[in-house]
Amino acid sequence: MRGLLFSVILCVLCGSSRADGPPNIVLIMADDLGYGELGCYGQTKINTPYIDRLAAEGMRFMQAYAGSHVCQPSRSVLMQGLHTGHTAVRANNLDQLLLPEDVTVAELLKDRGYATGGFGKWGLGYIGTTGQPSWQGFDEWFGQYLQVHAHFYYPYWVRHNDEKYLLPGNEGGKRSQYVQDEMQSQALDFIRENADGPFFAYLPYIIPHVEMVVPDEWEESYRGQFPKVAVMDPRPGYIGSEDGFTTLAGMISRLDAYVGEVRALLDELNIADNTLVIFTSDNGGQNGGKDNGWTKMTDYFEGNGPLRGYKGTFYEGGLRVPFVVHWPGKTEAGAVSDHICGFQDVLPTLCEVTGAKTPEVTDGISLVPTLTGEEPQDEHRGLYWEYRRGDRLGRAARMGRWKSVQLRDDRSVELYDLDQDISETTDVATMHPAIVREMTVFMDGCHYDEREYPPAPQRPKFKDFVR
Fold first, then answer.
1. Are 256 and 48 in contact (CB under 8 A)?
2. Sheet with 402-406: strands ordered across
3. Alpha carbon distance 143, 160 (integer Å)
4. Regarding predicted confidence, which is higher, 290 or 25?
5. Residue 405, SS3?
């Protein structure tokens, strides 16, 4: 009895000591998950109980923005704390990558003694380049470096610490190793191995991005509930679905279950009370043209909520994303914030949380005052996004209630009052010329000339990673 009592006291003391140290961090990012595809953001047709619970126990942000409307630059903003007018990677362009002088949040946390691991889709430099994760602050990486490689759920290899990791169950067109399950397993192992902390687990899931495929058991509960619409990708090597709505619902539920598995493991290891968990998405829900099944699915599920547009657009549907933070003992359960923030705020937030030094040059502002409610929160003068296609630059900005969109630099600036018109249905630029001028000057000042990228090694060819 005395020994048992001693063990209980020891466990309590160990738990207290751990809770007093710097928190572990789990940063989970879905791929192409729309603003309205979670129950906690209004979804009624797809079940997401674990993410909904995360929101119920933490803080849900209603006006949070991805770094870009597409994946590669959005990830660059997240890692660097710089918006797309300043960050290293500003387009879905495999020739753009992080260079040695670029500083990532993983590097900053590693300098603070954190074990750093990434599990999923990287997109900021492939093997043999300075952008690969092992050169940008990650002790361990398991997943896909190239975003095109990450389109596939049954590849026959992925990367593990810069080496090829074979998935023999998928060779020769076989489909027995669902790669997102493999990445989840590796992520859970990393958390177990570093449970003594502190650790930074970055989980950029590839789901629910194309392909349209999920193990059958995740579709069964939805079978027959939705219109049966085939979503068949015309690109060679891609898997489609004869029942796309059901498949998408199954993919999102599988994503939700992954979040539940992570949190269950944190509880099992007795480290949940000292682990900050963030959940978000890299951009809005997908579309693919007027008659494409992806557009029909996003519309049917109201995947972008009341927002206009989809992934790849500067309208709210392409940029505004779910953003949930659970920081035990700090965030108030069930809190909802209308603070306007973006991916560039993640780096300074995590620096303040961990005691790391925030870089002198950053476009972000720490969200700690909002998360804790203890201090007035500094606010952005504005948020900014840009994207170059050929010789034309598109851009957008958010300043308070106002949203400006300039689809190309040879077109006029559109203006929307988001307080009155969250769906961006009415361009009020002609009614507020002074606001348009102010936002145009702001956007002009946010753009720095793009960098020159050194010649990179030959990147893998498409045939190297398809079945």
1. yes
2. 383-389, 392-399, 402-406, 414-417
3. 7
4. 25
5. strand
* CA-wise closest residue to 328 among 367, 374, 271: 271
Looking at domain 23-381, which CATH architecture does it have? 3-Layer(aba) Sandwich (3.40)
CATH 1.10.150.170 fits 385-446, yes or no: no
pLDDT per position as a tens digit, 304-318:
999 999 999 999 999
Pick the closest to residue 284 from 66, 26, 93, 49 (CA basis).
Answer: 66
Rounded distance between C-alpha atoms, residue 214 and residue 207, angstroms: 9
Burial class from Cβ neighbours inside 10 Å (0-12, 13-18, 19+) for residue 10 reads exposed
Scan for tokens 């000042």, then name that residue: 445
Domain boundaries, the chain: 23-381, 385-446
Distance CA 303, CA 227 (A): 16
Coil, helix or strand for 92? Answer: coil
Cα(142)–Cα(150) distance, rounded to whole angstroms?
12
Cβ atoms of 67 and 77 within 8 Å: the answer is yes
Tokens of 343: 């991916």
**Is the link from the previous residue into 23 a cis peptide, with omega within 30 of 0?**
no
Provide the terminal-to-terminal Cα distance of the chain, rounded to the nearest Å: 60
Sign of the alpha-carbon dihedral angle for 120, 126, 127, 132: negative
Averaged pLDDT, 183-193: 98
Q: How far apart are CA 465 and CA 265, in angstroms?
A: 32
φ and ψ of 267, to 5 deg? -65, -45
Q: Where are the alpha helices (DSSP H) in 280-419?
A: 293-300, 316-319, 346-354, 368-372
Residue 375, CA distances (Å) to 60, 337, 346, 349 in order: 18, 14, 18, 14
d(CA 209, CA 92): 15
Which pLDDT does position 49 carry in this prediction?
98
How does DSSP classify residue 231? B
Return the CA Rg of the chain.
22
* Position 452, amino acid: E
* pLDDT of 3 above 90: no
Q: Which of 443, 441, 353 is nearest to 396 (CA)?
A: 443
3-state secondary structure of 243: coil
Tens-digit pLDDT profile for residues 21-61: 899 999 999 999 999 999 999 999 999 999 999 999 999 99
Model's pTM, two decimal places?
A: 0.95
Per residue in 221-274, pLDDT tens? 999 999 999 998 888 889 999 999 999 999 999 999 999 999 999 999 999 999
Specify the residue for token string 């899931």: 205
